[in-house]
Design a protein that fits this description.
Elements: E1 5-7, E2 12-14, E3 24-26, E4 31-33, E5 40-42, E6 47-49, E7 60-62, E8 67-69, E9 77-79, E10 84-86, E11 96-98, E12 103-105, E13 115-116, E14 123-124, E15 132-134, E16 139-141, E17 151-153, E18 158-160, E19 170-172, E20 177-179
Antiparallel strand pairs: 1-2, 3-4, 5-6, 7-8, 9-10, 11-12, 13-14, 15-16, 17-18, 19-20
Length: about 180
């Protein structure tokens, strides 16, 4: 049988490897393996594959388990450019790791009020010191959107249309900052 694999559990040739036991068919050696030596184990086909499928649902290669996954493990994010789970710092340019989806995203989710941090490359609720959260771009920035006439508010670390009255701060159009 040329379309079968050596099954280490039953010690027979099988058309498909025992996925419930965690095995995938490796075509090069015609053996069932727990971890694909090259590529990723595809849970749909039960075979080792060089690239995880993008349809009908996007899957990503998890380099830790060497399997294709629908959602990357915590603290890793699906990079759609290469179909692999990566660290946030390895998300493509202008993309950020979103913990709510575990995907590299161009704009951080408004619904959970997060912003793209250029240092960590993650979507964060609070920007780092000297950065301000900008609702128009969903980014942490050191300069607010002057075109939208936004001011840096050091009391909230946000870009705002008007400065808060408590504490008593005023719009300074010369530097686009809230000042006492």
């Amino acid at each position: 049988m040329t379309d079968s694999f050596a099954d280490p559990i039953t010690r027979t040739c099988a058309k498909k490897c025992n996925l419930t036991a965690g095995y995938f068919g490796y075509a090069l050696t015609r053996r069932c393996v727990l971890k694909c030596p090259v590529g990723y184990g595809n849970p749909i086909t039960k075979l080792c594959t060089p690239i995880c499928p993008q349809s009908p649902i996007q899957m990503y290669g998890d380099n830790i388990t060497s399997t294709c996954v629908y959602k990357c493990p915590n603290n890793t994010y699906g990079n759609k450019n290469i179909d692999v789970c990566v660290n946030a710092t390895d998300c493509p340019a202008n993309k950020y790791g979103d913990d709510s989806t575990n995907i590299c995203v161009g704009k951080c989710p408004v619904i959970i009020n997060t912003f793209g941090d250029p240092i960590t490359k993650k979507c964060v609720k609070t920007c780092q010191f000297s950065y301000f959260s900008d609702n128009t771009t969903r980014l942490c920035t050191q300069t607010c959107n002057v075109t939208a006439q936004l001011y840096k508010d050091p009391s909230t670390s946000r870009c705002v249309i008007s400065c808060p009255s408590t504490p008593s701060l005023y719009n300074d159009p010369a530097v686009y900052m809230c000042v006492p």
